[in-house]
Specification:
Helix 6 (about 180-195) packs across helix 14, helix 10 (about 285-290) crosses helix 11 and helix 11 crosses helix 13. The protein is globular. The strands form two sheets. The chain has an eight-stranded mixed β-sheet with strand order 5-4-3-2-1-6-8-7, with helices on both faces. It has a six-stranded mixed β-sheet with strand order 11-10-9-12-14-13, sandwiched between helices. About 40% of the residues lie in helices and about 20% in strands. A hairpin with an 8-residue loop joins strand 13 and strand 14. With about 400 residues, it is an alpha/beta fold. It catalyses: acetate + ATP = acetyl phosphate + ADP. Its EC number is 2.7.2.1. Pathway: Metabolic intermediate biosynthesis; acetyl-CoA biosynthesis; acetyl-CoA from acetate: step 1/2. One of its GO terms (molecular function) is acetate kinase activity.
Length: about 400
């Protein structure tokens, strides 16, 4: 069985073709600048040279047609006939309370995804566009929706309710949903495999640290708390997002700076985080370099970021009562030994100690805790595409 995994952004389309018999990636690629001059498809089939295809792609349907053509190409493709694609797995960011698991897509599912647009206005619309484009190009091929929010639907009310009048939850479903669920689920399952345990027998904290970042408490295989909230703005300080702030700051700044609702949203989502503090960049590599060059604001940005991750780890340890492992994943988590070391620094009293030599690793699975550490600390590269393909297969097998 070969699964095509699709992840649509507003002007982009990421894809992989995965053979589920052995979970090998047959091809992968990215289409950028859809609907914008300069559209480009970067495609790579396993064992073959990368190719770049430049052509104007006015919409996602045309982009998908280029993807299918690249996958089938005799010179740089991965399959001989489109009939080899037995299912398509779609990443969908927000499923609200409607979806606690992946589902086969039909008209009712698409309607439910559309109803969640107000909760994820930047993400759900292109996700729907990708689904509709695939249905046109691949009629009759089963489509499965895999939701970023689904993994966190196991959280208890005490974790997801806000301290607001309960009527707002009843009327508008105003609650914490959490995101990066596919990534948190993948690395939690992989952790259990690496430790030789059943997921139901361990408690772990997963740190998905990138430009967007979140921390999740996973108790006996289930998400019981997570840092992102109603939207991906809550929680950690991120590349350009402010994370947790005093809510009164919003109205205070709107009044002082004469900002509209859209303008304050822009400030919190696109101009804040480590970019806002450092004034350097939203890319942690740039900030680390600036800090090494004695840029004081860059140093403060990093210290503030590390401290917020540390706070969430500590609070989730207290919440679960016991902890077996801490996992670092995603761009920064997988590649920055400095970030991992600083986050775990001075946590020996909690049973957490990183070995500096083991921590000298980038982008590969490794236990980085010392032999004396009571709690295992691991680096596990995330693989959301494989998780989506697995979920797709599971849904179809039902």
């Amino acid at each position: 069985m070969k699964v095509l995994v699709i992840n649509c952004g507003s002007s982009s389309l990421k894809y992989q073709v995965i053979d589920m018999e052995n979970e090998n990636v047959l091809a992968k690629g990215l289409v950028e600048r859809i609907g914008i001059p300069g559209s480009v498809l970067k495609h790579e089939a396993t064992g073959k040279e990368k190719v770049t295809i430049e052509d104007e792609m006015q919409d996602h349907k045309i982009a998908l047609e280029h993807v299918i053509k690249a996958i089938l190409d005799p010179a740089h493709g991965a399959i001989k006939d489109i009939s080899e694609i037995t299912a398509v797995g779609h990443r969908v960011v927000h499923g609200g309370e409607k979806f606690s698991a992946s589902v086969k897509i039909d008209e009712d599912v698409k309607k439910a995804v559309e109803e969640c647009i107000e909760l994820a206005p930047l993400h759900n619309p292109p996700n729907l566009i990708g689904i509709n484009a695939c249905e046109e190009i691949l009629p009759g091929v089963p489509m499965v929706g895999v939701f970023d929010t689904a993994f966190h639907q196991t959280m208890p009310k005490s974790s997801y309710l806000y301290g607001l009048p309960y009527e707002y939850y009843e009327k508008y479903k105003m609650r914490k949903y959490g995101f990066h669920g596919t990534s948190h689920k993948y690395v939690s399952q992989r952790t259990a495999e690496l430790l030789g345990k059943n997921p139901e027998d361990i408690n772990i904290i997963t740190c998905h640290l990138g430009n967007g970042a979140s921390v999740t408490a996973i108790e006996k295989g289930k998400s019981v708390d997570t840092s992102m909230g109603l939207t991906p703005l809550q929680g950690l300080i991120m590349g350009t997002r402010c994370g947790d702030i005093d809510p009164a700051i919003v109205t205070f700044l709107m009044e002082k700076e004469n900002l509209s609702i859209s303008q304050i949203n822009d400030v919190m989502n696109k101009k804040s985080g480590v970019l806002g503090i450092s004034g350097v960049s939203s890319d942690f590599r740039d900030i680390e370099q600036a800090a090494a060059d004695n840029n004081e604001r860059a140093k403060v940005a990093l210290e503030t970021y590390y401290k917020t991750v540390k706070k969430y780890i500590g609070s989730y340890m207290a919440e679960m009562g016991s902890l077996d492992a801490i996992i670092f994943t995603a761009g920064l988590g997988e590649n920055s030994s400095e970030a991992r070391a600083e986050i775990c620094k001075d946590m020996q009293a909690l049973g957490i100690e990183v070995d500096s030599e083991r921590n000298n690793v980038r982008g590969k699975e490794q236990i980085i805790s010392s032999d004396a550490s009571k709690i295992k600390v691991l680096v596990i590269p995330t693989n959301e595409e494989l998780m989506i393909a697995r979920e797709t297969l599971e849904v179809l097998n039902k």
